[in-house]
Prior knowledge:
The protein has one domain (about 5-115, about 150-235): Glutaconate Coenzyme A-transferase (3-Layer(aba) Sandwich). Helices cover about 25% and strands about 30% of the residues. It has helices spanning about 5-10, 30-40, 60-65, 85-90, 100-115, 175-180, 220-235, and strands at about 5, 20, 45-50, 70-75, 95-100, 120, 135, 140-145, 150-160, 165, 180-195, 205, 210-215. The strands form two sheets. Strands 1, 2, 3, 4, 5, 9, 10, 11, 12 and 13 form a ten-stranded mixed beta sheet that branches. Strands 6-8-7 form a three-stranded antiparallel beta sheet.
Amino acid sequence: xxxxxxxxxxxxKIKNKSSVMIGGFLGAAVPLVMIDKMVAEKIKxxxxxxxxxxxxxxxxxxxxxVLNRQIAKYITAHVGTDPNLIKQIVNQEIELELSPxxxxxxxxxxxxxGLGAVVTPVGIGTEVEDMAEKIIIDEKEYLLFKPIHADVxxxxxxxxxxxxxxxxxxMSNTNPIMATAADIVIAEVDxxxxxxxxxxxxxxTPGIFVDYIVQGxxxxxxxxxxxxxxxxxxxx
Length: 236
């Protein structure tokens, strides 16, 4: 059964040199409070695993970890929105492991399912060939990628009940799949309700995958944060 703890208690579960999955995509459905706590704690030499870099322009959500130079290795499918991250990669301050977006998701899924590899033709004949082992199956070429698993996954959901059953709202993206692929799963949510208040058909991640529940910003607070961000970054 999942345990409700404070963000301050949750961040203590993350140690220096940990591998940490962070749910969300380009700022959306991202655990903002937990990222801020990681920055405040100055946890260093992290291997961060997320499908894409932070919100465009850098210095937002995952970009805060980049600016604070807490990332040693970044496993992802997309880095183009964060110039600070690109600079650190080019300067060899951050090691980059890149794979196509669909392959990235499959690698996480394989890590959660206990599979030994992801075998795909995607990337044959491109620079992606340099990132994986090439194998032949039935006279056809494939690329073999290792699964992705993490010490900790920090995911974002709209709502949790007291058992850790999670409901998503609008965009869940990588959060449900990352919940299956880490030793410790911390769910940051907008609100926590009693068992039975989430319709069973609305549960996107069963509580069996969740270890800790953290109260994040409320839904209205998140709307205000994102509206202010989008206005500030889209001025003419």
